[in-house]
Structures are given as C-alpha cells and as structure tokens.
Amino acid sequence: MLNKLQEALNERVLAISDGEVKGLQLSVPPQGKGDLAISVGPLASYLKTDPASAWSEIDSVLDDVTGIESVEFVGQFVNIHFAADALFQAASESIRDPTSLHVQSPQRIMVEYLSPNTNKPLHLGHLRNGVLGTSVAELLAAVGHTVIKSELINDRGEHICKSMLGYQHHGNGATPESRKMKGDHFVGEMYVHYSEDDRKWRNSVREAADQELRRMFSGDERVLSLLDRWNESEKASERQDALRQLLSLTADESGGKAYELLQQSSASDPDLQSMLKRWEEGDEEVLELWRTMNDWVYQGFDETNSRFGFTFDKVYLESELYTLGKDHVEEGLERGIFSQNESGDVYFQMPASFGKSPSGEPFRRKVLNGNGTSVYLTQDIGTAVLKAQEFDLDQSIYVVGDEQNDHFQALFEILKAFEYPWSGNCFHMSYGMVELPTGKMKSREGTVVDADDLADEMAGQAAEVIQAREPEVPKDEVSARAEVIAQAAIKFYLARAVRTAKMVFDPAKSLSFEGDSGPYCLYTYARAKSLLARGAEAGLVPAEGRPFGLIGNDDERACLYELMFFPQKVRAAAQNLAPHIVAEGLISLAAAFNRFYRNNRVVDEEPELACERLALVSLTAEALDRGLSLLGIKTLEKM
Prior knowledge:
There is one protein chain. This protein has 639 residues and is of the alpha/beta class. It has helices spanning 2-16, 41-47, 51-56, 84-96, 124-142, 158-170, 176-179, 183-216, 221-232, 236-249, 256-266, 270-280, 284-308, 318-321, 326-335, 376-391, 405-417, 451-469, 475-496, 507-510, 518-537, 554-576, 580-599, 607-630, and strands at 26-27, 36-39, 68-74, 77-82, 108-112, 146-153, 314-317, 339-340, 346-349, 364-368, 395-401, 426-431, 434-436, 439-440, 503-504. The strands form four sheets. It has a five-stranded parallel sheet, with helices on both faces. A four-stranded antiparallel sheet has the order 1-2-4-3. Strand 11 (395-401), helix 17 (405-417) and strand 12 form a beta-alpha-beta unit. Helix 22 (554-576) runs parallel beside helix 24 (607-630).
C-alpha cells in the first residue's frame, strides 16, 4: 500500500506541477494525530494556494486505498487514520514482498572493496572498508541491481619488498607452520622487523648528522632552530621543509660529511631498491620468495575473509595489472587528452572547476613517468576499462578511504575525457578513517588493531557474558553464539557510523547488550523468537489471512509504522550508498518492539489477541533478520 500510494502521489504531483514538484513526502505524524502524514506544502506553494485546495487537486490518490477511517488537516499536512488491520497488511506487504524495493531500471554494478596489501594482516581499517563494501553490495542487490563484488590486491611494490627483506634478515628459514601462526600474521611480523631495522638505521644517521651540524654551526641559532624542527616537529611538512633548508645550507663543498648524512637520512634504502629492481627484471630467486610469502598471506586472508563474510566474484592482482593503461596513455597523447613535458613525463590537466595550484597554474596529474614506468593512475585507467569490458558494467563503485579523494577525482575526469559511455557512472565511495579511543592506528610500529585479534577478544568477552547468564550452556554452543555476537558488535558499530565521517571505534560500546548496538538488535530478535516459541508451546499460531480486530494500541501501531517505513530506509540506503540508514532503522524498530514487549502481554493474553500480537512479533523478527543480513550480520534465536 505504502509504495503504491507514494508512486501515485509522485505521478499525480509531477503531472500537475509540470515536473517542478518532484513528490510529496510520506511520514508518521505525532502520536494521536493519525497513522500517515502527507506533506502538501510544496504543492500548495507551487499552486499558490492553501494546503486544503492543493489537496483537493490530488485527493483521488486515496480512492484505491482501503482501511481509511478518517482524513484530517493539521497545518500543511494531510493526516490519515487507518484501521489497525490495514496497517498490519501494509506492514506485511512492505516486509514480505522484496520486489517492492526494486528500481525501475536495474543496472550491472561492480563494487570494489577491501583491496589489501600483502605485507600484513587485515586490520580495523580494512574491517570498516569490508563492512561498507559488503553492505552496499547487499543493498544494491536488494533493490534489484546485478552486483559484482571485486577486490584489487596490492601484491607488488616497495611495501611488499620490505616484508621480503625482513624475512631474509630475521626469518631464519621459519614458516607460518613452524611458528604456528597465520600466514598473514607471520609476514606482517617480517614487515615490522624491517621497519624496526630501517628506523634504527635512520635514527643513527640522523644522530650523526645532527652532531656534525651542531659542530659545524655551533652558535648559529637559525641552524639550531632548523635542527630542532627536523628532529622534533609533529608535522611531516615542517620536518621536510627543515631538511630541505639544511640540505641547501650544506650543499656546497664545505657541507661535506653533514650533507652526505642528510641525504642518507631521507634516501630510499638501497637494499630495498635493489630487490624491487630484481623483481621487475624477473629475478627468479626474488620471484620465488615473493610468490611464497604472498601465498602465506593469501591463506591468512582467506581465513579472515571467511570469518567476516567478505566474498568476491572477481579478484584482481596488481602484479598482473600494473602495466595496463600504457596503451591508453599513448592514445590520450594522440588525442590531446594528455600532454608531455621535456622530461617525457605525461600529464593530465584537471578541468578549471578544480581550481589552480598556489603558483596559479591549473592542477595537473601525472599519468606516466618519463622513463616509461607506470604510476597508479596508469594502472587504474587500464583496470577501469578492463572491468567495464569484462563485466559489461553500467556503474563502478570504488570503496576506498578519503585520503584518495584527489586520486579518484583525477581518474574519473580522465575516463570522461576518453568519453567512455560508462565514465559518468564511476563513483568513489569515500569514507573516513577509523581511530581508537587512544588515537590513530599505526602498522609500522606493530601497534595496529589486527582484525583477527579484535574478533577473538570480543568473542571472548561475549562468551564470558553468556557463561555468566547461562552456565549450563555447552562450551561449543557458547563459542558459536559468542562469535555471532562479536561479529554483530563489530559490523553494526562500523556500519552505523556515517560513512563520510572519521569515526572512533569503541569496543566496549560496540559490545553493549543495551542501547544502539548490534548485540541489542540481536537480543531483540532472540526475544521475538522466544515469544514465538512460547506461543507454539501454548498452541498459539500467529494470526494470518484474516482481519485483525483487536490490536491497535499505541505500542502496536508504533511497531507497525517502523515496519511499514523500513523498506523505504533500505531503498534510501541503497540510493545514497549509506548503510547507516539501515542501522538506524533497525535501532528504531528494535526500540519500538521492546516498548511493545515491556507494556503488553503476548502469550499470556486472551488467545485471539495473543495470536494477533504474535503475528506482529513474527513480522518484526522477519524485518530484523532481513535488515541485519543486509549489514552482513547473522542472527541468533538464543543469546
């Protein structure tokens, strides 16, 4: 009923207003003022008349709506009172007819998400990416689109070689099996070893440079101030500026040892560059170590992905794609899309709408190095074309953190310049970084919040709660329930945060069984299933297929309102790529149901009323189960 009424309103209003008024909003009025409100204000403003006269132009939309008891005006709103039976049928139709959500023109959409590096295990930041990616994929599929989930694994480059060097220096021939570790954790440990070695070496060079400069420029306050900034500033830009000035001061022959040390302190590790060069040249010894360590990581990734429900229809590897795009760059040069400087570097000039650089020049983005080697944009141009051709895509969504906003702006403008028919339907699903109550996560220091460790810790805490409440439950059952609760806690907390905002993940709040959390929604579902089980034991079956004549109090109506409007929230979440809308809808539904539960008897009521209330309980359980599944969360019938 709700969807049909909304469509009829939109069609009628668009016709009357010649498309100027897109539609009239449906909402729930204040308690006691009706069951459904239609805002007539926008149409009244367009027609330059009062709301009652505007309503008279479109009131025929209610002709086919059954169960209306009365209609009244309250300000600019038309408030409609329905019989409780009509409300229940509308709610049931909303929840049990999945096709009512479907868009008129479904598309083929690829959602690329997660995209980890093979030098360390997945961490909390990856979990936010994974939860957003899987949720959006589920939401788009729920409204009728064909969704292809993909992953681009960054399996080559300096960061991978760092782990390999770490293994050569510290691995001593060990394997994940011999160390009894997950493969990704083992390789991540090697990455930390390399980072520690590199930091110690750079610190020693920095200290030597500092001593030499203080000897050379003793008493020169300007140089001493630069040294303090270089050593102590919390801002990378200030440290880099100080180093640049120190290099300039020591660039002549008098700089000698100090200049050499300053250069070493910021130069790339020669061993690292040598290994990267050998990889690119196809050195079999290096490639064998690379393949072995990547395989270890993939085994670890598979375990973590399985645990969190991250699945993919297509996996791309950067090592197989990094040369893609060079042909497109050549074509772009021929067509005047790109330009080339005297060093051979190839650039794309951003449109004027993106502003100008501090020097007053239009912003440019490099798409190919002068020596012919690729940059990330080279690869991403080629990969975007490959994906569109391989899967006949209408739309491509990239789930990547907001630190890559500039990169994707450039990529999409380049694709538009090539006039690919799908280029206007590429979208960077940007999101804010995850922090802990104690601050940002870091991986080079080995203090990153590991995804597996986080899940283990939270499952352990959930198990303690279960055992305290029900000590008789077998250990295997406790572990199984605790895992579902931990997953719900993590995923719901990550999904509920507004995507574009930076967020703080609080493990204690996420695991709370009360309030706005995944466990709270799970507990509400389990409560509903318990009521249904108790009803079945008493021989009571949810009333279906007959008019309802007994339910209809404020608590019951509040539940029915949440159920009626829940599909609209799903549709809005899909349209805006915003899983938090579904999470908020689940919280509202759970809260309404728990008020109903506190204030009303169900199984212990008179049988006919009990059966009607059980029908409401059953419908609520279905909606909670479906909504949580859209966020990748399983349900429990017993907590």
